[in-house]
Amino acid sequence: MSVKKIYLIRHGQTDFNVAGIVQGSGVDSDLNAAGHRQAAHFFAAYQHLPFDKVYTSTLKRTHQSVQAFLDLGLPHEEHSGLNEISWGVREGMRITPEEDEEYNGVLQQWRRGETHARLLGEKVRMR
């Protein structure tokens, strides 16, 4: 049996990232110029590897981040389960320190196994 390696990358920069605005799974933003440069740098550094398949979320910023690999004809699957978390009512807004504290509280609950914890207005995804 051969050993498989999995490479995980985050999408490139968007204008929402620069402005400090939460995207989550409900804001389907494009990469900005810096994000396209980041994607090009990633491709330049890793294009020599024999990838078997590319997996992305359904969000276009993830597709744009790996487009050069897709253009090579690599098999591709998108999965909504790879989408970013839902930030509920905060998607598309700047986060205040209080909201950031709430988010960190939910993360702590998840770490304790309390996976029912949700942010205000978060949509529960059915799998």
Automatic annotation (TrEMBL):
<dbReference type="Pfam" id="PF00300">
    <property type="entry name" value="His_Phos_1"/>
</dbReference>
<dbReference type="GO" id="GO:0045820">
    <property type="term" value="P:negative regulation of glycolytic process"/>
</dbReference>
<feature type="binding site">
    <location>
        <begin position="111"/>
        <end position="112"/>
    </location>
    <ligand>
        <name>substrate</name>
    </ligand>
</feature>
<protein>
    <submittedName>
        <fullName>Histidine phosphatase family protein</fullName>
    </submittedName>
</protein>
<dbReference type="InterPro" id="IPR001345">
    <property type="entry name" value="PG/BPGM_mutase_AS"/>
</dbReference>
<keyword id="KW-0378">Hydrolase</keyword>
<feature type="binding site">
    <location>
        <position position="61"/>
    </location>
    <ligand>
        <name>substrate</name>
    </ligand>
</feature>
<dbReference type="InterPro" id="IPR051695">
    <property type="entry name" value="Phosphoglycerate_Mutase"/>
</dbReference>
<dbReference type="GO" id="GO:0004331">
    <property type="term" value="F:fructose-2,6-bisphosphate 2-phosphatase activity"/>
</dbReference>
<feature type="binding site">
    <location>
        <begin position="10"/>
        <end position="17"/>
    </location>
    <ligand>
        <name>substrate</name>
    </ligand>
</feature>
<dbReference type="GO" id="GO:0005829">
    <property type="term" value="C:cytosol"/>
</dbReference>
<dbReference type="InterPro" id="IPR013078">
    <property type="entry name" value="His_Pase_superF_clade-1"/>
</dbReference>
<dbReference type="InterPro" id="IPR029033">
    <property type="entry name" value="His_PPase_superfam"/>
</dbReference>
<feature type="active site" description="Proton donor/acceptor">
    <location>
        <position position="84"/>
    </location>
</feature>
<dbReference type="GO" id="GO:0043456">
    <property type="term" value="P:regulation of pentose-phosphate shunt"/>
</dbReference>
<feature type="active site" description="Tele-phosphohistidine intermediate">
    <location>
        <position position="11"/>
    </location>
</feature>
